[in-house]
Known about the structure:
The complex is a heterodimer. By secondary structure, chain A is an alpha/beta fold. Chain A is built from nine helices and ten strands. Chain A has helices at residues 28-38, 80-92, 114-126, 139-148, 169-178, 192-201, 210-213, 218-238, 257-264, and strands at 7-9, 12-14, 18-21, 42-46, 69-73, 98-101, 130-135, 154-155, 184-186, 205-208. In chain A, α2 packs parallel to α3 and α4 packs parallel to α5. By secondary structure, chain B is an alpha/beta fold. The chains are: A alpha/beta, B alpha/beta. At the A-B interface, α4, α5 and α9 of A face α3, α5 and α13 of B. Chain B: One of its GO terms (molecular function) is 4 iron, 4 sulfur cluster binding. Chain B: Pfam families: BATS, Radical_SAM.
Amino acid sequence: MAESDDLIIAGRRFKSRLFLGTGKFSSGAALEQAIHSSGTEVVTVALRRVDLSSPEDDILTKIDRERILLLPNTSGARDAEEAVRLARLSRELGGGNWVKLEVTPDPVYLLPDPIETLKAAQILVKEGFHVLPYINADPILCKHLEEAGCATVMPLGSPIGTNQGIRTLANLEIIIEQSNIPVVVDAGLGLPSHAAQAMELGADAVLVNTAIAIAKDPAKTAYAFKLATEAGRISRLYSNSGISTSKQASASSPLTGFLEEESRNVHGVI
Amino acid sequence: MYTELFDKITFSEAKERVLSKSKIDIESALHTSHSGKALNFEEYLSLIHPIADTYLEEMAELSVDWTKKRFGNTISLYMPMYLSNECRSSCVYCGFSFENKIPRKTLTESEIHAESKVLYSKGIRHVLILTGEDYSITNLEYLRSAVTILKSYFDSISIEIYPLDREKYEVLISEGVEGLVVYQETYDPETYSKYHLRGMKKNMRYRLDAPDRGGLAGFRHIGVGSLLGLSDPYGEMFRLGEHAHYLSKKYWRTTIQISLPRMRPAEGEFDKTIFVPDREYVRFLFALRLFLPDSGLVQSTRETVRMRNHLAGMPITHMSVESRTDPGGYSGGEELKQFEIEDTRKIEEFTEMLRKKGLDPVFKDFDRAFFQVPDRVS
C-alpha cells in the first residue's frame, strides 16, 4: 500500500484501518492476542468497564499506549448529559482528549440517539475533545456532526452485536460520498467479508468487536478481519471492473449525431 | 476556502493530470456510471480527455439517464436583467470593459419596474440580475433597493455581480436574494492576470473564494463557471469540476449550479480566443453531468439554436431565454450589450420546442414564503 495512504484523524496518522472494540472477550489474554493479530492501532474501551486511574486494570494493561490509541467510549450513557460527564471524567483520569461518543438510551437494540449525540458532540468539541460519534447511518446527521467539529462519523452497518453486516448500504453510500471527515463503519460487521465490503464502499475504517470477541479463535478471526480490511481498501483504490459496455460513436448515433452534421458545416464559434 | 485546495496543484499540472488518462480509465469511468454511481474526481478527469470522444454517444445516453433521474423532464427557465454596464475593471475580452468607450447606463428605479413588468408578462418568475464591476455606482444600497423592487415581481432572485464580503452577501440574502453566480472566467492564474488589467477584478483570489463566502452567508443556490476560450480547456475543466465538487460537499444545504459559456464576440478587439469545438464542449458537459449528477447545468443564449435544442434535458437543466445583455433592453433602449447572443428566439417559440421534446419548462421553482421561516437552528 502506498505510504501516503495513511488514515489521518484529528491530525494523528494510522496505518491500520481496523478499530477494535474490547467488550465481550473471554479473557484479557484473548483480547491481547486479538489486538496483536489484528494489527489495530485504535482500541476502544467502555469507560464504565475500566479503571483509568489504575495501572493494573485488566483491559488497560493489554494495550500498548505507545503504539495504540486508547479510545474511551461513553457506552451506557442514555443522554448528552451523561455522555459529557463520562468524557470529562475520562480526561481527568488520564484518558486523554479522544472520545468515542455513544449515547444509547435503548437498552435492547442499543441504537444511538441522534439528538442527544449531536448535543453532546457540540459540547465536547468546544471543550477540546476529538469526538468520534457512533450514530445511525443518517447522512444529514453526519453533516451536522461534521459542522459541529467532530473528528469522524461512525455510522452503523446494522444494529450493534447482530453480525448482520451492512444493512444500511444506501445511506452509507451517501454518507461516504458527502463526508469531509473520515467515515468509520461501526457495528453489525459479523464477517471479514462485511469489513471488506465497507472498505470497498469507500469507508475510511471499520470497527469490529463482537465478531472477533466471540469467535472460536479470536486471534485468527482478528487476522482475517485485518486482511479483509486491507483487501477492501486496496480494491477500492486500485481495482476496477472496468469492462466497458461502450458503443463506438457512429454517424447513426441518435443523441450526438447533430455534432456530425455540424462538422460538415464548420463555422467558428466566435 | 477553495484557495487552499487550489494551491495544491498548478494549472499546468492540472492539465497534465487530465491528459495522463488512458482508454482504460475512460472505460472504467463509464462502467462506474453504468453501475448507478456518480463518478469520482479521477473518473471525471478521464472523460474530459480527448480519447473519450470515441465514447460520446455512450456518454450522451448516460447523461440523459442521469439527468432524467435527478431532474425529471423539466427545464428551469430564467431571464437575465442587466441593471448596469458601469464597470471599473478592464477585462480585455468583455464588452463592458472600462477601456471600451461605450455609452454607460445604470437603471433607475422606474426603469427596473419597467424591465420587471416585461419579464413578468412573459411568465418569468426567476430573474438573474447583473451588473458590471463598479463598486460605487451599483453599490450595496443600490442593489438593496433594486431587490426591493424586484421581489414585488419575482419569486426568485439571483445575483451575478462583482464579488462581495460575506457580510454583504448576508445583507442581500436578508433582502430576498436566493442565488449567487460568480463565474471565475479563467482558473489559470497566468491568463487571469494577463486579461484582467485593472480594477477589483484583478484580485483573482478574492474572486476564487467568493462562492465560499456565499456558501457561508447561506445562499440557496451558487453558480460557478469557466469562460471557455480564455485558457487551456483541460485545465479549466479540472478546476471547474474540482471547485463545484468542493462547494457541493462543503455547503451541503446549497445547490451548486455549473455553467460552461464559450466566448462570444463582444465590443473591443480581443482576438486570443482558444477555439473549443462543439464535440469537445459537449463532452465536457457530459463529464460534468456524470460527475455531479445533482448539480444544475446552466446554458445561456450564447449557444446556437441547434446546440440548445439538442442539449436541453440531455445534460442541461437550466436555461436562459430571450436574453438581452443591455441594461433596459427589454423595455426598449439603446444597444449597450455585453456580448452577442446566438439564440434569439422568443420565449413562446423556445418553450414550444421544449414541450415538443417532452420537456416541461419551469417558470417558478421557489416561493418567497421560504424567507419567512425562522433562522436555522444550527
